[in-house]
Design a protein that fits this description.
Elements: E1 3-7, H1 16-27, E2 31-38, H2 41-44, H3 51-70, H4 72-81, E3 86-93, H5 96-103, E4 109-114, H6 123-132, E5 137-141, E6 151-156, H7 160-173, E7 178-183, H8 201-207, E8 212-216, H9 225-234, E9 239-243, H10 249-255, H11 258-265, E10 270-273
Parallel strand pairs: 1-2, 1-4, 2-3, 4-5, 6-7, 6-9, 7-8, 9-10
Antiparallel strand pairs: 5-10
Helix pairs in contact: 5-6, 6-11, 9-11
């Protein structure tokens, strides 16, 4: 894990997620790339808008583009001042999920800031962006700037998403001074047929020379959100690793679920992978 991509939502002053991404890059000797994306003026154009209105929207879009282009050097200086070995700057115009999906082809991790007071950071928006990219993502609470890894908690329910998330997070888990395995009720696969090879999370962590402290969550998987966050707080976790969309994506999108509730309530960064 070397290339960290961070969505920039505010330019000079930078949103706190930028500082978190740069600090994390410094801790893993990696690179931090900021991306600023603004919508095409065509997307903001009313169906029956006038040519004068379109001209105004186009002018504003060009002004935003020029401002973003001028901030590239400032972003690089900011990230390097926070310890990032390498820093880069990207700007784009278009549909944000599509832009992130394309940039995911050349990055290892996506950092998004969660801010309930702004549309760009509410749980619904973050869920949409998580679905759009194959990258693992760290959702950072608003205002948090330091990427501490003193204690990392691993949420485990024996699901495919849990395996994928923990595997993807191993470069960070190895740097943790303390690792806690929060073992919940095994998730029942939906519509699974046939027999699959067994997987032992304990043997997996042992092979990676990770000594994890076991903790048991005595709660059904569908109600695990609040108990999971409470357990992470009790052990002093700086980062919670968990699989996203533990149920079917249709149910999760329509009804919420553990992933959505954790995204809404978490006071610590979440490492998520679907």
């Amino acid at each position: 894990m070397r290339d960290i991509l961070c969505r920039v939502t505010r330019i000079q002053p930078w949103n706190a997620g930028v500082s978190y991404a740069a600090d994390l890059a410094a801790r893993i000797d990696g690179a931090a790339t900021g991306v600023y994306v603004h919508a095409s003026p065509l997307d903001s154009m009313p169906r029956f808008g006038s040519s004068e209105l379109f001209g105004t929207l186009l002018r504003h879009a060009r002004e935003r583009l020029a401002l973003a282009q001028a901030c590239g050097e400032a972003f690089v200086e900011h990230a390097r001042a926070l310890g990032a070995r390498t820093a880069g700057w990207q700007i784009a115009e278009g549909y944000l999920p599509d832009v992130l999906a394309r940039l995911s082809l050349r990055h290892d991790l996506l950092v998004l800031e969660r801010d309930d007071e702004h549309a760009h950071g509410d749980p619904g928006e973050l869920a949409r962006l998580l679905l759009a990219t194959p990258l693992p993502c760290i959702a950072v609470p608003a205002g948090l700037k330091q990427a501490r890894l003193d204690c990392v908690a691993l949420a485990w329910n024996a699901g495919v998403e849990s395996i994928r998330a923990i595997h993807a997070a191993m470069p960070l888990v190895r740097r943790a001074a303390r690792v806690v395995l929060l073992r919940g009720a095994p998730r029942k696969p939906l519509g699974a047929a046939g027999w699959h090879p067994p997987f032992s999370i304990d043997a997996y962590l042992e092979r990676h020379e990770i000594r994890a402290e076991p903790r048991t969550l005595a709660t059904p998987d569908r109600d695990a959100g609040a108990p999971l966050l409470e357990a992470a707080a009790q052990v002093g976790a700086d980062l919670l690793v968990m699989g996203a969309y533990g149920r079917s994506r249709l149910d999760e999108w329509a009804l919420g679920g553990t992933t959505r509730s954790v995204l809404r309530q978490a006071a610590i960064p979440l490492f998520l992978h679907h």
